[in-house]
Structures are given as C-alpha cells and as structure tokens.
Amino acid sequence: MSAFKDNLLAGKTAFVAGGTSGINLGIAKRYAELGAKVAVAGRNPEKAAAAAASIGPDALGLSCDVRDYGQIRAALEEATGKLGKLDIVVSGAAGNFVAPALGMSANGFRTVVDIDLNGTFNVFRACYDLLNIPGASLIAITAGQAVNPAMMQAHVCAAKAGINQLIRVLAMEWGPAGVRVNGISPGPIRGTEGMARLSPTPEADAALNARIPLRRMGEVEEVAESAVFLVSESAKYVTGTILDCDGGSQLGDARDRTGAQGLQAG
Ligand code: NAP
Ligand code: COA
C-alpha cells in the first residue's frame, strides 16, 4: 500500500549506486514502477545485469567499484549517455562484517570506510555535472551506527557518521544551485545481506525485534517509500535531513521491562 500516485516519477532519471541487491535494488525498483528511467551499479557485472533485468527491460545494469573515482565517473557517464541527465542519485553501496577493532586489520577498517564514506563522496562528486539542475535530488544511505556506537562495528560507525556530515555539508554547498541532499537511515531490514551478517539466527532476530519500538524488522519496500518521498515534490523544501526509517530503533532499547525487578509500575 503506497500513498504515491502512479507515474509520479515519469520523465525522471535515476542512478542507484549499490543498487544491484537488497535495499538499494528495492529503491531502484520502486522508482522504475513510478515511471523513472533507472540505472543500477555494483561491482559484479552478472549481478548488475540480473538486477537490471529484474527492474525491467529498459533498466541499465552497470559494473563499477565506488572506491575508484574513474570507475564511478565512467558508469555515471554511460548512464547519462543512454538515459539522459540525472534527476535522482542514490549512494547506497556499503560493506560490513562483524569484528572487534582488535580483530580487524588496518586494511579491514579502511575497506569499509572506503566503500561507504569515500564511495559516497565519489558518487556525489562525480555526478554533479551530470545532474539536471535545478531540481536534482541526492540520497545517501546511512545507518543507525552513525549515531549510536555499536560493538564490533568500529568501521561502520566511523564511515556512516562521516556520511551523515557529508550529507549536511553538501546540502549547504549545493542548495543554492537547487540540488537537495538527504539521507535515509534504515533500521534492521528483513531478508537483506546486512541483516544476514548482523543477525544471523532466528533467535537473534527475536531478541532484536523485542528491542524495536514497532516490534518488527522493516521491509525493503518500506525504505523504498521513504526514498520516493525524499525525491518527490512533497519534499521540495527538505534538504540536509536524515530520515530514520527504522521502526523507532534509534530511540534506544525498547524492551518491555515491566517484569524486571525494580522497574515495576508503582
Ligand atoms: P547489499 O544487498 O549487500 O547491497 C550492497 C550493494 O552495494 C550491492 O549492490 C553490492 O553489489 C554493492 N557494492 C558493495 N561494495 C561495492 C563497491 N565497492 N562498489 C560498488 N558497489 C558495491 O546490502 P543491504 O543490506 O541491502 O544494504 C544496503 C544499504 O543499506 C547499505 O548502505 C547499508 O549500510 C544500509 N543499511 C542496511 C541495513 C539492513 O538492515 N540491511 C540497515 C541499515 C542500513 P556488489 O557486491 O556486486 O558490488
Ligand atoms: N573480520 C575481520 N576482517 C575482515 C573480515 C572479517 N569478518 N572480512 C574481511 N575482513 C578484512 C580482510 O581480511 C581484509 O583485510 P586484510 O587484507 O588485512 O586481510 C579486508 O577486510 C578487505 O577484505 P577483502 O575481502 O579483500 O575486501 P573486498 O573489497 O573484496 O570486500 C568486504 C569488502 C570485506 C566489505 C566484503 O564483505 C563485501 O564485499 N561486502 C559487500 C556486501 C555487504 O557487506 N553487504 C552488507 C551491507 S550493510
């Protein structure tokens, strides 16, 4: 069930970096359903082709590594060459593994910061002169680790915190030209690679659900709805914001403690 009207994005062109699986692919699919021309990009060319085919016959699947400025620039140029200048760019490529700081090498830390943070800078810096300006809308996909420190996530916490500030700075620098820059911070989203890494068992899922105010993980489609809102006319005065689509997860641990000693009502 969606509040958005059919063909909302007709005439728009979108590029989704990291859009070949999971949440970002869900966003790309929703943009295409609403009439946008869409390109998705990831490292693996077969996966990119399959993702594009799953979106529709006109979608473009491109292969590039966002850590390499030349590669992402070439992918963006190919997309605009085939689909036209861009109205929407989503930067969502990310890497994650669960390890304590003492269990990760300098290269392990750098790898995640490079994909998430440097990758987002690369995507946004490289797309700027390929945008339809004024009116273009950029979204970076961040995470709750940007705000709340999490054990075994030093690399992701650092990278996503950097992304949050990058969103705000670019919103200030590019706002005068009519380019909006926002973020989405998804909570735990069911059936994704991210959650397979962070919550690998049904028991872990149940414990997680009990801590979320809305008492469940989110769906890819729910994040996609937020991504439609931010690029729509309804959000034309919204820039530099980070929309938490997370069932209230970032508010803190919402376990019901009424049975716990010392915390009973009265
Ligand atoms: P996913 O399915 O693993 O998606 C990651 C995407 O990025 C894939 O398309 C992957 O394709 C691409 N990618 C990875 N490294 C890349 C690189 N160096 N260059 C270009 N593309 C690259 O992940 P997900 O779980 O859906 O997460 C998507 C986004 O949501 C991430 O930004 C993540 O931090 C954020 N998020 C997820 C959750 C969650 O519950 N899953 C929660 C909060 C935030 P290739 O492997 O082919 O490159
Ligand atoms: N624990 C500790 N270190 C780890 C690790 C783990 N579980 N997994 C990888 N690393 C380290 C590697 O050992 C390596 O460091 P080293 O050279 O000092 O040994 C470094 O990270 C880079 O690993 P590599 O496999 O060469 O990187 P890559 O660029 O091929 O892949 C990853 C990047 C590691 C982030 C990989 O998990 C990935 O591609 N992820 C994308 C999908 C994803 O994470 N989705 C969820 C998004 S929330």
UniProtKB/TrEMBL annotation:
<comment type="similarity">
    <text>Belongs to the short-chain dehydrogenases/reductases (SDR) family.</text>
</comment>
<dbReference type="GO" id="GO:0008670">
    <property type="term" value="F:2,4-dienoyl-CoA reductase (NADPH) activity"/>
</dbReference>
<dbReference type="GO" id="GO:0047838">
    <property type="term" value="F:D-xylose 1-dehydrogenase (NAD+) activity"/>
</dbReference>
<dbReference type="InterPro" id="IPR045017">
    <property type="entry name" value="DECR2-like"/>
</dbReference>
<dbReference type="InterPro" id="IPR036291">
    <property type="entry name" value="NAD(P)-bd_dom_sf"/>
</dbReference>
<dbReference type="GO" id="GO:0009062">
    <property type="term" value="P:fatty acid catabolic process"/>
</dbReference>
<protein>
    <recommendedName>
        <fullName>D-xylose 1-dehydrogenase</fullName>
        <ecNumber>1.1.1.175</ecNumber>
    </recommendedName>
</protein>
<keyword id="KW-0560">Oxidoreductase</keyword>
<dbReference type="Pfam" id="PF13561">
    <property type="entry name" value="adh_short_C2"/>
</dbReference>
<keyword id="KW-0521">NADP</keyword>
<dbReference type="InterPro" id="IPR002347">
    <property type="entry name" value="SDR_fam"/>
</dbReference>
